[in-house]
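Predict structure. Chain length: 209.
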Amino acid sequence: YKEAEKELTTLLVRYEKHANNGDAIWELAGLCHRNLRNIRKAQGVYVRLYTDYPKHGRAPKAMVQSAYLLEDGGIRDWAKAITEYKKYVTTFPKADDVYDRLARIAYLNRDRLGQHQNAIDYYDKAFAAKPNPKILWEKATAAERTGKNDIKRAAYTQIVQKFPETSEGHKALRGLASILWAEGKKNECIAATKKIVAKYPKSPDDLYN
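Prediction complete.
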């Protein structure tokens, strides 16, 4: 594989303006990544592809691969990974996987950097891209870690109103009841708990929450 890497690198230097260089760079990145396990070099080669050949068919995937290698792919530079994902959603705003990248930015902010407000902002953007209860639940978790009960309550309420029949809808009802109890609003909490028991009669846990 080292010989193949050397040959590709030589060809790219010798024929620096060749029409197929984008394909060769993609091949070199894959070689460094999967065969030679040189993660940092592979990440740099992916950057070279989308920078030098932004209209190449592999440019979007190269940018995603670069971001992945910067995070769980091995380099573990969370801040740079976030920057790369942001670049992706800005450069390719209509890509089919924009939701996934926005959700990943939110996750990295919340679980890797502890930047919960940034996470909340990106969970909102992910929800706008693809409304679903799971992303609202993740947003509520980020809000809980900052002690922002108003944001958590709003997320739970949104889940209950928009996605009442989902498992997140069930958990959100319980979450709202817990917030009411913590705030000393016992009558409202009891009313909410009765609503949960009526809606989910086969869930005995609700009798004890």
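Summary: The two ends are 59 Å apart (CA to CA).
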